[in-house]
Amino acid sequence: ISTPLPLPKHILDVWVIVLVILVTVVIMTSLVLCPATAVIIYRVRTHPMHQGAV
Length: 54
What we know:
This is Small integral membrane protein 3. By secondary structure, this protein is mostly helical. 70% of the residues lie in helices and 0% in strands. The chain is built from one helix and no strands. The chain has one helix spanning 9-46. It starts with 8 loop residues before the first helix and ends in an 8-residue tail after the last helix.
Protein backbone atom coordinates (compact mmCIF):
# COMPACT_ATOMS: atom_id res chain seq x y z
CA ILE A 1 0.00 0.00 0.00
CA SER A 2 2.71 2.45 -1.05
CA THR A 3 1.63 5.83 -2.33
CA PRO A 4 3.32 7.09 -5.53
CA LEU A 5 6.04 9.49 -4.43
CA PRO A 6 7.21 12.50 -6.46
CA LEU A 7 10.66 12.43 -8.02
CA PRO A 8 13.49 12.30 -5.50
CA LYS A 9 15.40 15.52 -4.99
CA HIS A 10 18.71 14.15 -6.26
CA ILE A 11 17.18 13.22 -9.63
CA LEU A 12 15.96 16.79 -10.07
CA ASP A 13 19.40 18.08 -9.10
CA VAL A 14 21.00 15.83 -11.70
CA TRP A 15 18.62 17.12 -14.38
CA VAL A 16 19.39 20.72 -13.43
CA ILE A 17 23.12 20.05 -13.67
CA VAL A 18 22.72 18.34 -17.05
CA LEU A 19 20.64 21.21 -18.41
CA VAL A 20 23.17 23.78 -17.19
CA ILE A 21 26.01 21.86 -18.84
CA LEU A 22 24.11 21.60 -22.13
CA VAL A 23 23.29 25.32 -22.09
CA THR A 24 26.90 26.27 -21.43
CA VAL A 25 28.12 23.96 -24.23
CA VAL A 26 25.63 25.50 -26.68
CA ILE A 27 26.60 29.03 -25.69
CA MET A 28 30.33 28.35 -25.96
CA THR A 29 30.00 26.64 -29.35
CA SER A 30 27.89 29.52 -30.67
CA LEU A 31 30.43 32.05 -29.37
CA VAL A 32 33.21 30.11 -31.09
CA LEU A 33 31.44 29.28 -34.36
CA CYS A 34 29.65 32.57 -35.08
CA PRO A 35 32.82 34.71 -35.43
CA ALA A 36 34.51 31.87 -37.32
CA THR A 37 31.70 31.61 -39.87
CA ALA A 38 31.61 35.40 -40.18
CA VAL A 39 35.35 35.48 -40.91
CA ILE A 40 35.05 32.64 -43.43
CA ILE A 41 32.17 34.36 -45.26
CA TYR A 42 34.06 37.67 -45.23
CA ARG A 43 37.22 36.09 -46.65
CA VAL A 44 35.30 34.17 -49.30
CA ARG A 45 33.50 37.33 -50.41
CA THR A 46 36.57 39.57 -50.38
CA HIS A 47 39.01 36.98 -51.77
CA PRO A 48 37.14 34.78 -54.27
CA MET A 49 38.74 31.66 -55.67
CA HIS A 50 40.98 32.71 -58.58
CA GLN A 51 40.26 30.94 -61.89
CA GLY A 52 38.20 28.27 -60.14
CA ALA A 53 41.24 26.92 -58.27
CA VAL A 54 40.25 24.92 -55.22
